[in-house]
Task: structure prediction
Amino acid sequence: MRRVKNVGYDEDEWGDYGDAGWSSGAKPKAKAAGKAQAKGAAAPKAAATKAAAGPAAKPAVKGAAVEELLLALGESVASDVVEKALSAAGGRPEDAFLALLTEEVGAGRWQTRRAAAALVATPIEEPLPVPPSSGTASSSTSAPSAGKAKASAKQQFSPEDRKVKSEAPPAEEEEADETDISANIPPEDPSDARPNISLVVIGHVDAGKSTLMGHLLCLVGTVSSKQLHKFEKESKQIGKASFAFAWVLDEGEDERERGVTIDVCVKHFETKARRFTILDAPGHRDFVPNMLQGAVQADVALVVVDVSHFEAGFDRGGQTKEHLQLARSLGISQLVVAVNKLDTCGWDQNVYESIKGRLHAFITGPDCGFKAASVSYIPLSGFSGENMLERKEEALAWWDGPTLIEALDQLAPPPRPPADGPLRVCVSDLYRQGANSCLSGKVESGSIAAGQKVLLMPSGELTTVKSLLCRGDAARSGRSGDYMDSILLPVELQFASIGGVICDPKRPVPCVDAFQVQILVFDLDVPMMRGQQLMCYLHTETVTATITRLVSLLVKGKPQEKRPKCLQKGNVAIVSLKVNKKVCVEPKSTNGGAVTSLSRVVLRDRGTTVAAGVVLSV
Result:
């Protein structure tokens, strides 16, 4: 916004205005015309006496007042006329201005110069207040003319009107900037109706998740042969030649040196029927919080299991079971299970069937609760690329099912909140770009567009979207289900944070520090009790939570009358939580609508997931 600076007049120069005159805006009573004439006739003598006795600074003050009046009235009014009117008004510029304005209106010359006067008045930095009339108008001016003069003065020189005029040019500049941004973005193809699906890749550490997805991106053409050759050369130099495909997704130096995924990497690729956003999650148990950041933004999951070390990830405290439970708790209902590294056992069908049977019993059992029709299994090799895009291996002739790409294309788009609903974008990443902030995240509901006014919560900062980046390209807008790579906002980083929410200013997201949730308790060593502190994961936010009350225990969906004293494995209960700071949450819809990540909560204690559920009320 354009700021209006104060004009640096000294107190001595404008001391004659008086508190009841210039500053307060009070209107004294009008005096008779004869009295005004007498005052006007006596004014020159008083002015002469004042000039003789006054300090030497007065001529400079008078000259400044004459310049201001000439600037306000226009060049057609001579300076000597202004000086005479100023002398007749006793050195009060506001009275002189009204007297001269009354004469101009009475003579019919003001209307012809209105446009010019307005143009002259616009650049003045300090708006001149409308002073009250002290009754020094000419005797030849009638009362209606004086009223017309006052109205005209207020219309042209009132502070409110001047403020609007001074702010108008920046608004036009902003509109021009928004137009320029939109003009450089190519229009969307209305015939392309392929749905967007966010796919999180989960599984135990060293199951080959990054290698599998890096090779898939190379096969579909997202990664060029030149880039792959560079990765092969660099990985070979540090003795990790087999990690070339993994380096497509593992971009950090620590990840490449250790050979372990640490942060969630976001990539995009397209098929004939779908547009996918890959969220490559870490598999090590130390980075489960990072895995949650990716899974909470996903629609479907690709579970990667290693046939050569299956027991390490499934039976001996591995992450395969925990990842599956977390995926189901966060609302993921469709799974594609990639039985990886099957080439290490000669594509043995018996090994595949054995692993599939053990996995299927857990996935569709009470611990996870996936529907059997929503789970598909694919035997493949992420390193060799067999059965990913096409099937070439003769030893795999027993498999007559789909390839990995075909299985992904068969995934049904999940239900979305309506596009006209309130805007909700959970911030998963942010960084500084010049004087602006770039935020990333998935559009949970509503839609976002360049030039749109948005509200950042929990800071409460109101701002305007400058530009959008979706799927690596500039975009005009984003709708529910789209992952926005960049949302450029002209705000400081202190007003945005990971875990915050970009929302509709008219329908902001609730921001609270206490809420009620319904949870399912997982395997735990010590029963959950009132007063226990846990780590709470809400969409992309991580906070410390305290159980303040065990409200009720649910049996077959019905609350029990007796309040529980503790919670054990398999219990479904309603509890009240208190968190250590204000967080953005949204209660689960009561009309059967889609549940977004803003309504889902995961509780962990000492590195183990102990419960998960949904927010019922705030």
Observations:
- The chain has a mean pLDDT of 79.
